[in-house]
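Worked Example 4.2. Consider the chain below.
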Amino acid sequence: MKKEDKSIIINQIKETVAAYSHFYLTETQGMNAEQVSNLRRECFKHDIKMLVVKNKLMIKALEASGVDYSPLFGSLKDNTAVLFSNVGNAPAKLIKDFTKDNSKPVLKAAYVEEGFFIGENQLDALCAIKSKNELIGEVISLLQSPAKNVISALQSGGSTIHGVLKTLSER
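Applying the procedure from the previous section yields the following structure tokens:
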């Protein structure tokens, strides 16, 4: 591969890393063509971009991005597929679901919520991370809860007072 071609690919990878807030490094070695196609379909369904990259080019793209991704460099060995997503836990859930029927892909490392997760044993922790929308939903429900309690108390109190007044007027 020519040096110009490599620099074009490095820039494309760098732009993709900048476009997505989270990415996962996975090992796909040993997967057949049908399994890889199924994985790509699942990624597409969940709005995850999958790229198979050369490790050296990925390292150069990460170095050029301006963020210190050096903890991930040790994981860039063998065949590497990168899963890019704007939802932090979506690729982890996809990997977990996909590996129920297949032995691969295996999580090598991930960059999620500005943190590094190295190793396959981090998959459950990554699945448990809540996305931004999930956290916003929880905050809204927590804020609505006291207001709902006050309204409920006022409504039940109003019917109780009405019942008492009605009973007194009948006597």
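The domain at 3-129 is CATH 3.30.70.1730 (Alpha-Beta Plaits). The first helix runs from residue 3 to 19. Compare this with Example 4.1 before moving on.
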